Amino acid sequence: MVILKRLAAWLFPDRRPELEKEREWEFIRAANSLKTLSVTDRGGVSIDPEELREQIIASREQLKHFVHKSGAPSGSLQTAGDVQVEQEVSAAAEAPVSAMDYIEVVAWRRLVSGAAVRYVCLQSMNTGRFAVATASMLSGGTDSLPPWVDGNTNRLVATALQSNELIWFDSVSEAMNAWDAEL
Predict the structure, then answer these.
(1) 82 to 79, 87, 126, 164: CA distances (angstroms)
(2) Sequence-separated contacts (24+) of 21-30 with Cβ below 8 Å
(3) Phi and psi of 166, rounded to 5°?
(4) pLDDT-derived band of residue 3, with 50, 70 and 90 as boundaries?
(5) DSSP class of 117
(6) How far apart, in whole angstroms, are the C-alpha atoms of residue 125 and residue 108?
(7) Helix (H) or strand (E) segment spanning residue 118
(8) What is the per-residue burial (b if ≥16 Cβ within 10 Å, else e) of 70-108?
(9) What distance in Å separates the CA atoms of residue 32 and residue 36, rounded to the nearest whole number?
(10) Could you tell me the pTM of the whole model?
């Protein structure tokens, strides 16, 4: 068997860069160091998720000095008092910002009647808070959304952004609940 492996290595040399070969061996060594890793005869792999989680947490702690959070302040630290004041600011006092400062978040809710409600929410990139721009109810046994939903939704979201009457909440579920309460 050893002679066959040497012959195959001579006939078909590994032409990958050394860095890639080293990374592959690092992965193999890391996988072999796992205590609960087992491989079935058909190629299936199982591992205790707790062991994997512990390894990931340990690696994160070891390498966290390499990571810079994009939203974190670079120089001064924010005190807990500052955070509390920011959370108490009312939704009406939030300064309007451009449309480029939002992320569209689509959320669904199943009603007791069997109908589904599709909420199109906006998340502010400045504050991380959520507002429902529009919602549509889909009832019946439709397998997919009707073709008018996307085009109409885009127009309704644009109108909501221009009106500056969005009410902001700390979570998507709070925004959805408030939207439902207004109906």
Answers:
(1) 5, 9, 15, 26
(2) none
(3) -75, 140
(4) very high
(5) E
(6) 22
(7) strand 116-124
(8) eeeeeeeeeeeeeeeeeeeeeeeebeeeeeeebeebebe
(9) 10
(10) 0.41
